[in-house]
Amino acid sequence: MSKLNILTKGFFKENPSLILVLGTCPTLAVTTSVNNALGMGAATTFVLLMSNILISMLKNVIPDKIRIPCFIVIIATFVSMIDLIIQGFLPALSASLGVFIPLIVVNCIVLGRAEAFASKNLVFDSLLDGLGMGIGFTISLVLIAAVREVLGAGSFMGFTFIPSHYNMLLFVLAPGAFIVYGFVMAAVRQILNNVEAKRKARQANA
Amino acid sequence: MNKLLNVSGSPHVHSGESVQKIMVSVIVALMPALVVSIFYFGLPVIVLTLVSVGCCVLFEYLIQRFIMKVPTTISDGSAVVTGLLLAFNVPANLPIWMMVVGALVAIGIAKMPFGGLGHNLFNPALVARVFMLISFPVAMTTWPVPTPIWGFADAVTGPTPLGILKESAAVNMGEMPRYLDLLVGQMGGSFGEISAIALLLGAAYLLWKRVITWHIPVAFILTVFIFSGIFYLIDPTQYANPFFHLLTGGLMLGAFFMATDMVTSPTTPSAMLVFGAGCGLITIIIRLFGAYPEGVSFSILLMNAMVPLLNRWFKPKTYAK
User: What tens digit of pLDDT does each residue of B101-151 get?
Assistant: First the structure.
């Protein structure tokens, strides 16, 4: 697998929340607005990147039997750091994301990449993998949040352009999260399938 | 000659029933209620019903033609029934565009993504109704006061009987419509649910045509009656009379036309009884203790989710085993 491939596979082809269906809790909970989604995506990307690098470095030191607690300790360290940074410099974001920043510790994506990739691969590859997965997670959050914010609150990134009379409140509530998640997932998979089918057709012709 | 050699599996005798015939029966059964609502609310009822039915059929056609790329099934009439039931579940003064959104939700979210008629887990009209109730809480709970067609007070809005009940701590029967009014439909409410007599007439037709069986409606209504009766006996000053609970809100419409939807209700009689009783229990819990004044649509949707379990639980025993 080429270096570029390791980076880009997380964007869409192995997108953590849309294709692998990991990290659904933050996907459903923080996508009420695009700003929240960007904040959550950035925080998770930071944690993924740093934990992947460190775990990849330590992979020969960590005893196999207690690797999961070790991964969690490393992940929790970076989550505490990003939590304090956000509290200190972006208090508004910290208030709206609330408990979901500390909960990145138990996000399946971070542990999943540590277990499936970083503990078996070289440091630089793990760095690319963490970055790619983080960006993919951010893309999926922003896609879902864009639909929910426009339909539910009539705004995009806090900029209101639809009068509140036309808002569909359900989309910023929990059921709207599930509905939009499902439809975005279906749409992205359909597009990927179409792209794949076209690629195969071109190969067959060539 | 070939006909003689034609070998096929059972069943060999066809009753002549088809999806289309069943849907036509349901549409016919809904007509008395529609006439009563046109009588009380006038032109808006006709407009909303046409918009709802038209949009449901149109969205079903568009989704099947351009997204699913399968043969269209709009001629089976199920989209028409969904549209009618959806229209029956809204106040007569609902803005038209909300009706269009409701139709899109019913067909585009509750029906087609599951695979169309026969595959949907939840009743499409009720999903759309609950969607609108949560999304447009003000528009969906502003009820016009029913005035016979020759009346002029068409801009007046008023509460539903169940709304009055939820607002006041003690039951003040003086404010309430009389039972006769409740029976014929002189009460505030979604426009298809107001007249108990018209709905019972339609239900009798459906029972006679054997489109529905008695199990679900009877279990549903009896459970509501018994539980509201228990609370009425405990404290008549705080809880309303059970007859009042039977005649108000969407109970008649829900019990006979929504809960009995063939796709989203259980298949065996015993499962149907449990299904109906569950609907009744949830309805009365929401009505007496919940935040919403009316719980029929929530109760049916919640029990819809239980249907696969009920079907498995009450699976008929294999013969001679």
Answer: 999 999 999 888 888 888 888 999 999 999 998 888 888 877 777 766 555
Tell me what ipTM this predicted complex has: 0.82
Task: Assess whether B39 and B109 both reside in one domain.
Answer: yes
A171 interfacial to chain B (CB closer than 8 Å):
yes
In the block, tokens 């679900």 appear at B216
Measured between beta carbons, the chain B residues lying within 8 angstroms of A179 are 109
Give the E-state strand segments of B137-288 in sequence order: 143-144, 157-158
Chain B CB within 8 Å of residue A168 CB: yes
Reference A135, options A115, A155, A113; nearest CA is A113
Total domain count, chain B: 2
- Is residue B13 included in any domain, yes or no? no
- Of A132-141, A195-204, B5-14, B81-90, the range with the lowest mean pLDDT is B5-14
Point out the residue among B97, B113, B134 whose CB comes nearest to the CB of A170: B134
Residues B284 and B226 in one domain: yes
B294 to B30, B172, B212, B319: CA distances (angstroms): 21, 18, 24, 43
- Evaluate if residue A27 carries a pLDDT over 70: yes
Kindly state whether residue B197 falls inside one of the protein's structural domains.
yes
The range of the structural domain enclosing residue B117 comes to: 19-139
One domain, residues B108 and B222: no
Within a domain: B6: no
Report the Cα–Cα distance between both ends of chain B, in Å, rounded.
Answer: 41
Residue B125 lies in a domain: yes
